[in-house]
Amino acid sequence: MQAKETVFADLMQGRTQQFQVPLYQRTYSWSEKQLAQLWNDVLEQAELLDSGASASTHFLGSVVLAPSPQNEATFPRWLVVDGQQRLTTLSLALMAIRDHIAEDKPDEAERIDEEYLINKRKRGDEYFRLLPTQADRPQFATHVRGPLTERTARDRVAAAYQFFRRKLDEADAAAGTQDILHIEQAITSRLTLVVVSAERGDNVHRIFESLNNTGLKLSQADLLRNYLFMCLPTHGERIYETYWLPLQASLTNDELEQLMWLQLVLDGDDRVRRQDLYAAQQKRFEGGERGKGRTEADIETYIRELHRRSALFRKVIHPEEESAPAVRGHLRRLHDWQAVVTYPALMLLLERRASGELDDEETVRALSYVESFLVRRTICRVNTNNLNRIFQAVPAQLPREVPVADGLHQLLSADNRQWPADEELRDKIRTAPFYQYGRPSQRKLVLQRLEESFEHPEPVAFDEARLTIEHVMPQSPGDEWLRILRAEVAEGESPEDLHSRLQHTLGNLTLTGVNAELSNHPFERKQGLLNGSHLEMNRRIAATGRWGSAEILARADDLADRAIGLWPAPLRGVGRAERSRDWSLAHQVLAALPHGTWTSYGDLAAYIGSGPQAVGNHLAKADGVANAYRVLNADGKVADGFRWTGQDHGDVRVRLGADGIHFTATGAADAAQRLTSRDLALLVVGTEEEEDEEGGVGETARAGADEPGVETRAARFLRQLAADDTPATVAAVSELIAGWERLGGWAGHGDGEVTTSAFLMLGSAGGPGRGIWPMVLYPGSGREGSAEVVFQHLAKREPFTERSLRAELLCRINELEGVSLPQGKLELRPGFRLSVLEDERNRELLMETLGWFRDRWEESRAV
Is the Cβ–Cβ distance between 131 and 137 less than 8 Å? Predict the structure, then answer.
């Protein structure tokens, strides 16, 4: 191979030749981020030309070329092994310049065409100096032939062209045509490339593979596509057009990669990881079933099978394409559950149905086992860590000697699968805080299925109804609710403890579209609203004379009967180990307590779905439970009669002090360091990506995104805030949000009706994963409003994945008078009262902190 430094003008040489992007290359994929970086580099070089300064050129990257099999002495053709993104982008930029100056300087526009873009005397595909891969070719060719007034949706080629047209308009408004030609000169002569030219016979695939460390990193699907079409020298064009292009059009790149991985799993590889897809499939081809290498026929068979399976896979990811109603219903629920881990099992079932081994009825029965497995484990709070392994093993481990549905039932019931039986399901529906486990959408689906079990003659259209989860006994109970509970408490239990134990259980939850009206009102007022509901479960609640512990448990028993009917139980006697009371969950969360935190018997009991006394008895007897001594009474004091289990570690208060727990003058542990049941749920499960429906992260909306004529979310937030906070606090919060917007942020508002929220957002809208927010502001719902600092969310977003930055944020916020966030909550979401912002100095300090936060985030994005 030969390598030399050159520029775009010299590479194109102003003569007849062609650079061909091979079929195996991915489509053009530069986004505005890469385009903007290139444009800034071009403008910098153009300014140097304007000033006449002599400075070094800008290095753009490498281009690897190999002789094309179609090469001719009079018409050189090159395969672009690497660098197609750069060459395509520079060509699109030159098209934009050509079209921008065409009216005023037609001769210059024609010169750009002939020097860089076209082979003037050639026809057909030979007309284009650069020939992209087939998927991009129509759009690219249209732009070469002339300007477009509209662009195809989601087409990156058209988007890049339009980007450059916009930037040229901006540059022209500030300067003139001469400066535009300086931009052309910067592109063609000031951006240097290292061109590596391979010789005929060089392994260009290996070259391509080794260069996969610059630009946009190639996915496993990109690498495998490259390999496949390098192995198809004679049949590549036909196979690409017949199978690959339709496949590529029906699936995104990520979905295609997922299907490629599933193909390996369906063929029996139950250990391959998705990130190892390329190497695993290549190894199969290189070794073959009998040690033989791959042939073009083998590659074609693989791609044809991938194409066939894509139609099945689309039914998994787009259930509306399934024609059988009952099968469609199960696929839809699993899709809404976001049960990606089940895809190997779902694909297996659809394959067996397509081959005639299963009919629709048996497919439905098998899918019901998959759904039940997920739902029962969620209700019973079984850890999800092993779900990937369980379902990936299904194709390889499914028993062959029994019908498919029976085999799947048997396999999922086996030892260590932890599919809860009826007894455990019934117990957890009565006792477990269902509202604090799993995703909000999953909790809503469970309640929806339970409502459907009533088989109402006029069922609710759940897709259209805006329903949220309602706590019948509210999360913030008033005196009347506590009076009802006071008559039902167990020995040693307070009404608050009983409320904490029952509030999040399934028996106390329902669905409603009038959450705001129900609010925290007494039950008598809620009855009228629930009685007018279209949901049968709400009418049955309304028919109850009161709503206390007995009624909640009675409803839980009824829902348990319905759940057992809806979601089949595992088989008995398949070797499944029965689980006792889930003390392992308590042990797990205690082991995870951060330094400088404690929790109470009631909090731990509410988290695991038990009672404070049972928790106390267990910890008093169980030896070796990590951090058991950090479970205190609700008032923060060591329980009377506390004794170490096993080895004596001395004075427990001394040990707690060594663990960073501070004590007040009364001898109580600092309440700010206490972890509530909600904190414990976040600590182990990590549910910060999706907030409670009633509190409403789900989706955040910018101001102005609400429906015309309807109270905006921003106005609803301020109205709810004013219900429990002083006018001074409301004014201070409004000033904070306005200051945040001046810093370049924006306020997103949750969609909760009872309690909404305000997110101090940076970046894109659309909820978790796209933007970043340092804190969320909440109205009080009967108490003072609060600001929640979302360290747990930040721990997954750059640059705050670095613990030291989160620690600095905590220290800065603690400079506010009246705020003392403990270091132990640096992985959680501690809060402070919004009323502290009434102090002007506190507002100034918080704005300085938010400015610091924005600067750190912007610096990380610029890297």
Answer: yes
pLDDT band, very low/low/confident/very high, at 690 (cuts 50, 70, 90): very low
Task: Using a pLDDT cut of 70, give the percent of the chain over it.
Answer: 88
Q: What is the DSSP letter of 350?
A: H
Phi and psi (nearest 5°) for 432?
-80, 140
- 96: amino acid identity, one letter: A
Rounded CA separation 568/142 (Å): 57
Print burial letters for 448-485: b (CB count within 10 Å at least 16), e (below 16).
bbbbbeeeeeeebeeeeeebbbbbbbbbbbeeebeebb
In terms of Cα–Cα distance, which of 244, 242, 249 is closest to 226? 244
**The tokens of 95 are what?**
């098209």
Q: Shortest CA distance to 675 belongs to which of 597, 609, 731?
A: 597
Helix (H, G, I), strand (E, B) or coil at 402: coil
Task: Retrieve residue 65's tokens.
Answer: 């070329």
Give the model's pLDDT for residue 651: 87
pLDDT higher than 90, residue 815? yes
**Of 533, 416, 410, which Cα lies nearest the Cα of 470?**
533
How high does pLDDT run on average in the chain?
A: 85
Supply the pLDDT for residue 430: 95
What is the three-class DSSP state of 82?
strand
For the ranges 51-55, 162-166, 457-461, 570-574, the maximum mean pLDDT occurs at 162-166
Q: 4 in helix, strand or coil?
A: strand
Q: Summarize the confidence of residues 312-331 as an average pLDDT.
A: 96
For 215-237, what is the mean pLDDT? Answer: 76
**Contacts for 501 with CB less than 8 Å, ≥ 6 apart:** 431, 602, 605, 606, 611
Do residues 779 and 715 lie in contact, with contact meaning Cβ atoms separated by under 8 Å? no
How big is the chain, counted in residues? Answer: 863
**What average pLDDT does the segment 738-759 reach?**
82
Please state, in angstroms and as integers, the Cα–Cα distance from residue 60 to each residue in 210, 499, 573, following that order. Answer: 18, 64, 66
Distance CA 376, CA 801 (A): 34
- Predicted confidence band at 579 (pLDDT cuts at 50, 70, 90)? very low
Strands (E), 189-315: 191-197
Q: Which CB contacts under 8 angstroms, 24+ apart, belong to 529-535?
A: 530/472, 534/458, 534/460, 535/451, 535/460, 535/510, 535/511
Residue 43 phi/psi, 5° resolution? -60, -40
Query: Is the confidence at residue 153, as pLDDT, over 80?
Result: no
C-alpha distance from residue 361 to each of 83, 268, 328 (Å):
52, 26, 12
DSSP one-letter string for 832-848: EEGGGGGSHHHHHHHHH
Tokens 């050129």 sit on residue? 57
Task: Note whether 555 and 541 are within 8 A (CB).
Answer: yes
Q: d(Cα 364, Cα 568) in Å, to the nearest integer?
A: 12
Q: What are phi and psi of 2, to 5 degrees?
A: -125, 140
Q: Which residue has the higher pLDDT, 17 or 203?
A: 17
Q: What is the pLDDT averaged over residues 236-244?
A: 88
**Cβ pair 716, 756 in contact under 8 A:** yes
Contacts 24+ apart (CB under 8 A), 733-736: 733/758, 733/777, 733/785, 733/834, 733/837, 735/843, 736/777, 736/837, 736/843, 736/846, 736/847
**CA distances, 329 to each of 235, 315, 316, 462 (Å):** 41, 11, 11, 13
To the nearest 10°, report the CA torsion of 34, 38, 39, 44.
150
Pairing of strands 598-600, 191-197: unpaired
* Predicted model pTM: 0.66
3-state class (DSSP) for residue 603: helix
- Token readout for 409 is 């039932």
Domain ranges of the chain: 2-210, 220-317, 319-419, 424-566, 583-682, 689-862
Question: 583-682 — its CATH code?
Answer: 1.10.10.10
Gap between the Cα atoms of 814 and 825, Å rounded: 13
